[in-house]
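Subject: for your reference before the review

Hello V.,

The reviewers asked for a structural picture of the protein, and I figured it would be easier to keep everything in one thread rather than splitting it across files. Below is the amino acid sequence we used in the manuscript, unchanged from the supplementary table.
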Amino acid sequence: MHPALLRLLLLEDNEDDAILVRLALEKHAPDEFAITWVTQLADALVQIRTEHFDAMLSDLDLPDGTGMATVQAIAAHAPALPLVVLTGRSGDDLGPEAIRYGAYDYLLKGESGGGTIARALRYAIENKRLEIGLRVANEALERRVAERTLELEIANKSLHESEERFRLAILGANDGLWDWDLRTDAVYYSPRWKSMLGYAEDELKGHLDTWKTLIHPDDFAATLRLVQDLIGGLSEKYEVQFRMRHKDGQYRNILSRGFLIRDPAGAAIRLIGTHVDVTERERAHERITTLSRLYATLSACNSAVVRSSSRRELCEHICRIATDTGGWAAAWIGFLDGTTKRIAAEGWSKSMDPFINRMAVSMDPDLPEGRGPTSIIARTGSPYFCNDVFTDEVILPWRNFLKNFGVASAAAVPLLEENRFAGVINLYSKRKDFFTPEVQALLIELSQDISFALDSFVREDRRKQAENALAESEEKYRGLVEQHITGIYIIQNGMFVYSNPRFAEIFGYAPHEIAGMAVPALVAEHDCDRVLENLRKRLSGEVTNIEYEFTGRRKSGTFVEIGVHGTSALYNGEPAIIGVLQDISEKRRAEAQIQHYIAQLEKAFTHTVAVATTISEMRDPYTAGHERRVGEIAAAIGAELAFDARRQEGLRVAGYLHDIGKMTIPSEILSKPGRLSSVEFELIKGHAQASYDVLKEVDFPWPVARIAREHHERMDGSGYPQGLKGEAILLEARIMAVADVIEAMASHRPYRAGLGIEQALAEIERGRGSVYDPVVADACLRLFRERRFQLPA
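And here is what came back from the structure prediction:
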């Protein structure tokens, strides 16, 4: 079953051009496009509004639309419809102008074949799909950033309003309260203030030194200046954010707000305020910022996927985007070299320039450079995320390098080509714990997008290779056909539309004279109806191909014997017959000569067998005709057993020669009228082996020698000369044994009169299954009793 056809709207006012486009697409992209053809712009716009199309192919100059106005009208009514312009107008600025107004490609009539048109339409459809997908992704990203920003703004506003209402009533609130006596540096820290940093009520002293020991050293000076400005009257507000060390050793982000109390003389005596732990809020803000940058990175990388035309170009774009947009410290992409089993860098960020030549990565786990994250994922196919390069043992060989580079966390994510590992993208961040589950998910999505692009490059390379191979194959095929020693032809609508030089030579014509010639012109009158009928059968679908012979008519009026093989096919989209033919005149003459020689050989062979039989009978005149009759009976039994004619002939020949060994026995024994002595009978029994010895060197097409030696063997092993049993006896010998008994008992012998056919059949019936093969015996009985076979004279 074919996949759903792509619906194509063809806007072309020239019917001939529209037909050419349709034929070209059917030839180069069969079963891919379903074409709807309209001749006017207004009709096209109606079709666009009422029906769905996957792409549109349009001329520029129409009865109701000219030039770029046509493109603008289509783009205005269907901005999401991929449009390719196919026109007869040329000009250096027309293509860019058409693309600027909404077209995806600009093709010239007469210069663009079906393959070019099909590729342009595919690229337009794919690019539009990617453009829409990118726009949807960007819009979703913008909505998510806006939603998160609004949430943060609302939270900040609410927090600000709440914090403005504090003062001494804050004692019952959840914020940490502090009260600093500026005259003694004694400070009251509320229980919540202490618990916020992980301490119990009695663990911290009520003095300013406590705060000084807990604040981050880098934040102390700036915070102290704000306090001094407030006391000195340079500032009316105290609000600052700094870091304080938690009991667990980690620093927490603290928002500190306060107000100053002065005595009646205006001297500052107390500074009272609150601490709010904003660590989680900062983390949330940092998370939103990070994700926003990552979504922007993903969007930019998707654009690079669409724009890049090669793997190296894509890798360079991705690494630049990772540092410029994503904020990573460094990035590089490498691919597996199947020969060296190493990962070779193909793209990297500018920050990696001083180090990239030192990035030795191997697949071999026994080497130091084969134990890092990149090597591990090359072997496992799973991504590797390290959130602390100073504690991860896998990073140990590169720890000093990363430390000097200022890197705190690293990631390596596999890239696939056709679902197989191909390479890896490596990313480095200066922030510890940067690769959260959300970041990891986005990086995996990025790797999938890159892998999709890699698959596209592979498909494009294969397509180009296939096109080149096809072109090369067509060229080779054309040369082969033109120079072939066999005549090759194409028939369409009853006429020859193509023939190679050999075809024309066979019929005595020049190659250009065949084109357009009707088929009967090259066929002898007595064969014309048969040839035309064979053409009709193939074109109607009754048969696919036919091989036959006919008499052809040359240009000179002479005749030639032709052997032809033709097959129904499509040529230029229409039914046709494609075939080959040869001049078989010499073959016919040779076949006739061969048949004559075969007949002579068969006649000579038959006469030779007859001579041998005659010589044997001359030694034993009392059994004259025995061999011949046995041969005929054996052949008749073979026919009853469904032997083919050739195998029956073998039985006949074997029957004629089966007793030829009797020539070694004295004639007085052969013609003795009385009972034979035991010695004489042993001599008689030796004729079977003697027959074999005489015949074994003759290269018969049948096992004649074995039949002669085994025709006195019996199924129960009581026969001679070898005492064979059952299936060990050749089937033809088992047939000959039955035929020999029938003829011997029914015919006269020197020592007795003939016993008759009924007594002979009774003997076969008696020995069926014991001394005679049951199948052969049954066939013999049917032959005489049901088919009324008569003994040969």
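For the response letter, the relevant points are probably these. The first strand starts at residue 6 and ends at 11. DSSP finds 26 helices and 20 strands in the chain.

Happy to draft the paragraph if you're swamped.

O.
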